[in-house]
Design brief:
Elements (H helix, E strand, L loop, with lengths): L6 H16 L4 E3 L12 E2 L8 E7 L5 E3 L7 H10 L14 E6 L5 E5 L4 E6 L4 E5 L1 E3 L2 E2 L3 E7 L3 E6 L4 E5 L5 E5 L7 E7 L4 E6 L4 E6 L4 E5 L12 E7 L2 E6 L4 E6 L4 E5 L12 E6 L5 E5 L4 E5 L5 E6 L14 E3 L4 E6 L4 E7 L5
Antiparallel strand pairs: 1-4, 2-3, 3-29, 5-6, 6-7, 7-8, 9-10, 11-12, 12-13, 13-14, 15-16, 16-17, 17-18, 19-20, 20-21, 21-22, 23-24, 24-25, 25-26, 27-28, 28-29
Helix pairs in contact: 1-2
Length: about 350
């Protein structure tokens, strides 16, 4: 037989509900630190002039904490104690295998996670973490990889195993999908805002398919091969400064095209020296034209100038500050913060660009 609670307990519960209703705790997003003193880490190391500074990382629910320093309110703690809830009983939602991401104008960070089969939305304005698990009604994500912001406040997500691009509003409401009839295994995604064009890296087809924002196939760029303008398992994309950057992964290079799909330049080669590309993945460009490429085999973030000359390499295998374990994507926000999807460490590492290079 269930044991009855004394009347005094019900009275205290009522008081808790009253207090909690009058003083709701406001949550804020805070970056966590991989180790003590991590915020002092810079690249290159002193006495050279630092160009990048470690800021912190995103991992999941632990990035959202009460605004006040003391943590949860007394009423909330008392209520949890009365009903038998403790922090130890809760399993936090955390990144598992992040792939790529993007940051909107309000500071929300959207991250694709292929292991979780979901989009993590680190919603800084609302002070909460959201999880988008449904590609549309009655259809869950399987392998979301690429993500991009599009016109009309849309968020585009490409799922490799669902063979399609899915459209959402910024709240995660599905708006439609396209590409299923022509995409074999899509991965990378980029958007040209000026022309409302969507670029999709179709990895198994070894080409880049170009769509209108409403999903009409316009043209295809490239084919399988090693010649200029050809691809061998292309993966990540970014559209910046009216140019399309394509990670031509198994050709170990980056190819750059104009808005009409004409090859402008290329850089990268296989090798054992700093700046060589063996298994390049993510690619991004900051406001100054510095190009960031993830070299996944060497667990590095490489920085190039627009001409493809190596400026800096940082990283190396590990889980400490400035180390990576099979990183995947990289992206840049409007404030020139660099985000690295550190896939097998289950986190997004954030660096601040301090200026110059090029």
């Amino acid at each position: 037989m269930a044991q009855k609670l004394p009347l005094s307990t019900f009275a205290m519960l009522g008081l808790c509900f009253c207090v909690m209703g009058c003083a709701e705790t406001r949550m804020v997003m805070q970056l966590s630190d991989a180790s003590s003193g991590g915020s002092s880490k810079v690249w290159p190391s002193l006495p050279d002039t630092p160009r990048y500074r470690y800021v912190g990382e995103l991992t999941g629910e632990v990035n959202f904490r009460p605004e006040n320093a003391s943590g949860r309110s007394t009423a909330t703690k008392l209520f949890d104690w009365l009903v038998g809830l403790t922090r130890e009983n809760q399993i936090p939602t955390v990144l598992q295998r992040p792939q790529s991401g993007v940051v909107d104008a309000e500071g929300r960070v959207y991250v694709t996670d292929v292991s979780k089969g979901a989009i993590f939305v680190f919603d800084k304005p609302a002070g909460k973490l959201e999880l988008w698990e449904m590609a549309r009604a009655n259809l869950r994500f399987l392998t979301p990889v690429g993500i991009a912001l599009a016109g009309k406040n849309e968020v585009l997500v490409v799922d490799a195993d669902l063979h399609a691009v899915f459209r959402f509003d910024h709240k995660g409401n599905p708006l439609g999908e396209f590409g299923e009839a022509v995409l074999r295994r899509p991965t990378g995604l980029a958007f040209d805002a000026q022309h409302s064009i969507v670029y999709v890296a179709d990895t198994y087809s070894h080409d880049i398919k170009v769509f209108s924002q409403d999903g009409k196939l316009i043209k295809t760029i490239g084919q399988r091969g090693e010649a200029d303008g050809e691809f061998n398992f292309p993966t990540h994309l970014v559209f910046a400064n009216n140019e399309l950057y394509v990670t031509d992964t198994l050709n170990s290079r980056i190819q750059v095209f104009d808005a009409d799909g004409k090859l402008i330049r290329k850089f990268g080669q296989r090798g054992l020296h700093m700046g060589n590309l063996v298994r390049p993945k993510g690619v991004a460009v900051d406001k100054g034209g510095n190009v960031y490429v993830i070299e996944s085999l060497y667990d590095q973030l490489l920085v190039f100038n627009k001409q493809g000359e190596t400026l800096l390499a940082l990283g190396g295998e590990g889980s400490g500050v400035g180390q990576f374990y099979l990183p995947a994507g990289v992206w840049v926000d409007h404030q020139n913060y660099i985000y690295i999807a550190d896939m097998f460490n289950g986190r997004v590492t954030i660096l601040q660009f301090l200026g110059d290079l090029q």
